[in-house]
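look at this one:
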Amino acid sequence: MPPAPSAIPRPVQALVDELSRLPGIGPKTASRLTYFLLRQPLEQVRALAEALTALKERIRFCSVCFNMTESDPCPLCLDEQRDAGAICVVEEPLDVIAVERTRSYHGKYHVLHGAISPVDDIGPDDLRIKELLGRLRGPRPVREVIVATNPSYEGEATAMYLQKQITPLGVKVTRLARGLPVGGDLEYADETTLARALEGRSEM
């Protein structure tokens, strides 16, 4: 007996399945997005498809700080007006955007691309920590590393590990002040709170 025909066309189901893979999007939200796109003009859907393709084809990670960029090194690393003696270490590229919004920090960055999490089987070797230590041992002197990992269990574990690795190199290690909510993500902090946390950072 042949299988019963599906009420959902295959292209529709395929897009629902792909959208469901995105973080924070369940099957119901994926279905709503799919039917929304189905009702839009072809030009708008093509623009979305082209933007997604350009994202993968043109965006890469900076070979110095590992932030997302179109050119390598990224503009922030190439900017000679920024203080090369300070490096702000964050978990994700979105955190760089959050810190930049404060207009309170004018140094360089280093993106780890995650945090130490034994539960998720993520250790120091899975992050860009080795590259950070290489920068600190490089020819350009660094006087301070600002650890701006999220105020979560994983962020704190990462901060403590970084302190142990960096302190023997003779570089001052500071942590953002406790103005940030415990368990929150840096990218969701408002500009004022994040600016005060930067100003009130303390040595680890």
